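Postdoc handover notes: sequence design on the structure in folder B. Input tokens:
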């Protein structure tokens, strides 16, 4: 059975008012072909924009995680160099007999 645009709108609003975002998305996906062409185009545009925003957020999160990881690596290298320097200082003092 094909729904009228008003019936489709009423059903979407009912689901939205219930706060069930997943049900709204499923309903729109299941009934996309029943909407008028202009509405379909707008819905597809909204879905594409949402997908692009989510992808951008994921890329940003990965970049932030990689940056944090590089900072940890850099800090670890600094600590290692400091320890190696302290060890070398101790060895030199021992060789010089000052320790």
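Designed sequence:
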């Amino acid at each position: 059975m094909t729904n009228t645009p008003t019936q489709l709108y009423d059903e979407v609003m009912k689901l939205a008012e219930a706060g069930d975002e997943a049900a709204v998305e499923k309903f729109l996906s299941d009934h996309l072909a029943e909407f008028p062409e202009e509405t379909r185009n707008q819905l597809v545009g909204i879905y594409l924009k949402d997908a692009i925003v989510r992808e951008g957020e994921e890329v940003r999160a990965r970049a932030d995680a990689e940056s944090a990881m590089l900072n940890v690596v850099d800090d670890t290298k600094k600590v290692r160099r400091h320890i190696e320097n302290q060890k070398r200082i101790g060895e030199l003092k021992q060789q010089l007999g000052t320790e």
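Context for whoever picks this up: Helices lie at 5-17, 21-31, 37-96. Don't rerun without checking with the PI first.
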